[in-house]
Amino acid sequence: MKLRKLGLTGALALATSVAALIGGRAFAEEGITVYNAQHESLTKAWAEGFTKETGIPVTLRKGSDTELGNQIVQEGANSPADVFVTENSPAMALVDRAGLFAPLSQETLSEVPEQFRPVDGHWLGVAARSTVFVYDKRKLKEADLPKSILDLAGDSWKGRWAASPTGADFQAIVAAMLELKGEAATLDWLKAMKANAKPYKGNSVAMKAVNAGEAEGAVIYHYYYFGDQAKTGENSANVAQHYFRNQDPGAFVSVSGAGVLASSKKKAEAEAFVKWVAGPKGQEILKTGTSFEYAIGNGAASHPALVPLAELQAPKVSPDKLDNRKVVELMTAAGLL
After folding, report:
1. Highest taxon of the source (predicted)?
2. Tens-place pLDDT, residues 154-193
3. Cα R_g (the chain), whole angstroms
4. Domain 130-252+315-333: which CATH number of 1.10.10.10, 3.40.190.10, 2.60.120.280, 3.30.830.10
5. CA distance 337 to 329
6. What are the extents of the domains in the chain?
7. First vs last Cα of the chain: how many Å apart?
8. Is 135 annotated as a binding residue?
9. According to the annotation, is 87 in a ligand binding site?
10. Class of the 11-128+254-306 domain?
């Protein structure tokens, strides 16, 4: 099998390792299996770019963060997956705590800054998304907007805002709040949310509700707005975005992760894929594509339509500290699940 350039000085060693593992073209054609909880179009573009460059086929199996994370834990050492890719980091932390990731090489880890990967080096970030408050610009002016996401717990916001509480996106935001503010404050906020917010299934549906005047605002991720604007703008014509900034929990930036499963029999090929996605060519797809997620690789530029990451003033939250199990417990206690 032919393996072309994968990155820096370790490319030759990685190619040699791959060649030693595959031992023939039949194995190369079999390729690797990726459990994909990221947007299908984005991971498909990554897979196609990687296969074109390396000749290693990639099979994608789609599911949600929570679904696939729990599935990997259940499969354990028998998982057929070689790589796990997520939208948010809590599912990565779940699999890591179960001891099911193989350590990544320092060369691969070095593709992204330290704040976008866990201390143990078992996976890394490959993209990011920012929390935002989308609002109906016909009804709200800048002075009317909440200064903090915590303000949405106030009586003045009762019945006025929306969210998608059952989704992994929103639960990652709650996980960040839990890490930053603690269990008691988070539970109080969730109980207030139960009384104040209108639940919708999906961030795009919540934004559409704001656009239609059903709610004055919604807590979602930024790229839903940019994605709709890049298409017809039909579901965001009356919508604007508010960034909380100031290290507020509402300024949380969620990291999308990728890691190699310890059970994989094709670890060299699997790590080559993770490294390619986190490296310059994988990150270029974020800049030029239509996912509108942030590129986070060293020196990588994001799509020019996005507010630069450095300007978001996001709070510092280690991606391996987010506890989705506790989040589900608290949201259930608050009556949101």
Report:
1. Bacteria
2. 999 999 999 999 999 999 999 999 999 999 999 999 999 9
3. 20
4. 3.40.190.10
5. 9
6. 11-128+254-306, 130-252+315-333
7. 49
8. no
9. yes
10. alpha beta
